[in-house]
Amino acid sequence: MSVDTQDRFAFGKNWQKFLVQISDERIEKAKKSLLGFLELPDLRGKSMIDIGCGSGLFSYAAHGLGASKLLSFDYDPNSVAATEAMWEKAGKPANWKVERGSVLDTTYLDTMQQFDIVYSWGVLHHTGHMWEAIRNAARLVAPRGFFYIALYNKVEGRFGSRMWWRIKKTYNRSPRWAQVIMEWIYVFIFYILANLLRGKNPLRAMHSYGAARGMRWKEDVADWL
Q: Phi and psi (nearest 5°) for 44?
């Protein structure tokens, strides 16, 4: 089963907008995020695959941390292009390859060796076949390796996952002007109003967004919707 193209968000175009915002500070935050989870001092001597590499920020961070072998792939050609731009920024290293591929394509995966670190943040649930994607990714983990993934959790109730499924479907099927309205409604509720109710400065919260991973709130709003 494939995902209807009108329901599929153009993640790559969104990440290409983010490229101009990638600073040394964001790169350092991405590095700290990787090492904090893995509980490693660096990635020297470790191979890593970035499944659904998106902007290429975390692949770039892994390269900077000394990964001995790095493979980044994504289904979205614009995400591949964004990651290639980060590869070029790194000086086109020979030990880092950027490809277009799908985690659901077992023929493609069969061409790979196993990796010390299999990384996929916020990706596998977007395939439409989450458990198959998880199984396919898991088989790439080398013995005593790390399987580092992040997935949406399922939330029951009126304001749970079913509501967000409807919102996401509406967003992806809407013209750009309607998407912009939805984005600012989201910003008002979850950034401005939510922080005011907590007694926090919403502008300060937006400015400090991404402190843990180096991302930016504007692209993440579109990504979430």
A: -60, 130
